[in-house]
Specification:
The protein is mainly alpha-helical. Helix content is 40%, strand content 10%. The strands form 2 sheets. The chain has a two-stranded antiparallel sheet. Strand 1 and strand 2 form a beta hairpin. Helix 1 crosses helix 4, helix 2 packs across helix 4 and helix 3 runs antiparallel to helix 4. The relative contact order is 0.24.
Length: 174
């Protein structure tokens, strides 16, 4: 369970940055190993990502906002994505067809993530307090992944948001 919670948390960070407003349990594939245990996850259906109205404080739909925990490796990747004030991040999104407002909101969510990580770097974290946890920590089994659960979906949709989410997944290695 710690590894699955870590991966769910990494997906939550990706969803936060992408403004994914539809990450319901049916939009998560869970991969299972030969012994029946979960071995990985895949988020699908990115149609409601990168909306113009989903800023860092947005509440609604299935948008869960910023997670309360992050592992150090993912934190470093998000900080790298924001280097130079997120200019390359914004250019990548714009070149893939997002509107200026969608790019502005995504960049704002990325900055919020970046700012939280900088703050968390100076304070210790645990399963019950916000912050950065080691990826191999057993505390991941105690983390509330806020409703991301074992459900399956049948189809994935293809659109410009899938392209942008896929590119961010590569950059964040999730």
């Amino acid at each position: 369970a710690p590894q699955l919670n870590l991966e769910l948390n990494q997906m939550q960070w990706l969803d936060f940055i992408c403004g994914q407003a539809d990450r319901n349990p049916g939009n998560i594939f869970i991969q299972y190993g030969a012994q029946g245990g979960a071995t990985g996850i895949t988020g699908i259906d990115q149609d409601l990502s990168f909306g113009e109205k989903v800023d860092a404080q947005f509440q609604g739909g299935f948008f869960r906002g910023m997670p309360a925990h992050i592992d150090g490796d993912t934190a470093n990747k998000i900080k790298a994505l924001y280097k130079n004030d997120g200019v390359q991040f914004a250019e990548m999104l714009h070149s893939n067809g997002l509107t200026p407002q969608e790019v502005t909101q995504a960049k704002s969510r990325l900055k919020s993530a970046y700012d939280a990580i900088l703050q968390w770097e100076t304070q210790p974290a645990s399963a019950t307090t916000q912050g950065i946890l080691p990826a191999q920590s057993a505390q991941w089994s105690q983390i509330n992944t806020d409703g991301y659960s074992k459900h399956f979906a049948e189809t994935a949709h293809t659109n410009k948001n899938n392209v942008n989410v896929a590119q961010l997944q590569v950059l964040l290695n999730t």
